[in-house]
Amino acid sequence: MINSENIASILNDYDLENLTIGTLGSHSSLNIFKGAKEEGFKTVCICREKDAILYKKFPLADEVITVQSFAEILSEPLQEKLRKLNTILIPHGSFTAYLGTGQLVEGLMVPMFGNRKLLHWEANRNEQADWLSKAGLRLPLTFEKPEDIDRMVIAKMSGAKGGSGYFLVNSPQSFYKQFSLMVGRGLLREGDIDDIHLQEYIIGVNVYPQFFSSIVKNDVELLGIDRRYESAVDGISKIPAREQLEIETNPSYTIVGNLPLALRESLLPEVLRMGDNVHKKAAELAPPGLVGPFCLETVVTEDLKIFAFEISARIVAGSNIGIGTSPYAYLKYGPGMYMGRRIAMEIREARESGALASILI
Ligand SMILES: Nc1ncnc2c1ncn2[C@@H]1O[C@H](COP(=O)(O)OP(=O)(O)O)[C@@H](O)[C@H]1O
Ligand SMILES: [Mg+2]
User: How many domains does the structure of the chain reveal?
Assistant: First the structure.
């Protein structure tokens, strides 16, 4: 189990003038590596054979370690190699997707940027909802049991990524009907019924603000906003309603890419307050709170109410729209700032002020 004592002793053996920024080769790794290089760090990529072309065509990793599966990062020889390179790991979506939060907290003895305790909170829908509502955010209602459904509801599987097996219903009857259909099509199993999270479906557009919580500057910064390009939901709208009724569609949300978004300016003050408050609440739940990037997933309705339905306590792939710059990073820093670079800048500044341990928790 990694704790502040063994992180401190690992850092003690590190050559702090020769740090390497490392991550798994997927998700937002190019963003992270480019930012690290621009801030003067060396880089190491833990890469699967099939993805190696990416780091040949975009040679941003000084060292590429090839593995059969990402879980190999837990092997002792690989961890030892990373420590020899004085590596600080930057977690992204593939860490939690391939390793699980338990293994990340218990099995990975390499310093990692951010607050590992919050990765745990992020993994559980109920704890997450508790955190966000205590931070004063507006959340969609949740329904305890199918009998309570009295409006349009999105039924989500716990832990399902990409919305496969999610479905929309507006009454208890339609819930049971849809559920049987999903089981019939092999997308769900009978036993899944107890794990389904029933959440009010908010009609509006998705807005995903990306924040950076700086321990060095004691501030939460807004660095970018994106929306997602999801298959099949974004494709269904191109099919006329009559044909939609004839084919068996269900709303899956497999992410294919991200699109940059400039938000109506009058919505920005609330978005900024949301970022501040989520960090403040996190500081109570797991001190010192959010360290580095985090992202809120929101829906904005026609009367301009912002509903938050999820949080990621790490860099999100949506920040890839900002590589180079984004409107909000530009407003704050001028040209050349983006999430990967902002992370490396925080590490550099923490090192300069002797505060590295405060951002590797
Ligand atoms: N309450 C909601 N109202 C409207 N749309 C929603 C709601 N919850 C989720 N969605 C849509 O479903 C997608 C996947 O849901 P999400 O809770 O983010 O699951 P995942 O764990 O797969 O990321 C979202 O990106 C959004 O487009
Ligand atoms: Mg999501």
Answer: 3
